[in-house]
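dude i think i finally got it to work??
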Amino acid sequence: MEEKLFIEKLLSATREREIPLSENQARLCFRHIQLMLQWNGQMNLTRITDLDEILSKHLLDSLLPSPWLPHAGPALDVGTGAGFPGVPLKILHPGLDMVLLEAHRKKVSFLKVLLAGLSLENIQALQKRWEEMDRTVVDPVGKRGYKLITMRAVRLEEAHITHLAAHLLEPGGVFAWWAGPGASTTVDQAKRFAEKAEMTFEEEFSYPLPSTEHLRRIFIWRKTER
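look at this
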């Protein structure tokens, strides 16, 4: 698929869902995909290589939940892999000061090349496990708590709420978890996790993706404001 057609499809899908993605932002998203596929043979960044599937299962899956998330402030994308959802969200909302957290050195090398190629400001890749994150490394650009923490394609654990989100979010900050197709987490479990921390479970949202049969789900928690 050529660039022009890819951008047209991306813009059509985002306009249909009232996501305010510009043509220039769509071009940056295409460049992200190009670089990911170029590096994919070296380090297996994704098992999805068909461009229509990438558009749906990587880009749109990252972008469509954006109305439910903060659009500015310090943000942390946990286990970002090839940069999803952190890079598309940063492209869509330049006011996010994004930290891409990834434990694998080779993937961080890719992310650094990607960020240099996209020339985005206030976004960086950090090689570290989420269990190692504490207040000494929270938001390296400003030493504040995060306004948004995202996590996609990572199995949810109770500690993600009770340790990671509860300790690193600023009051009122949001933790958003993309539930994978096979995820069995329920709203009752999400509420129990929140009860063990200074967190409130807000809602489970669902949304359709083109060419997929099942609705995608995203769980939203918010840190209690004192």
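DSSP finds seven helices and seven strands in the chain.
im so relieved honestly
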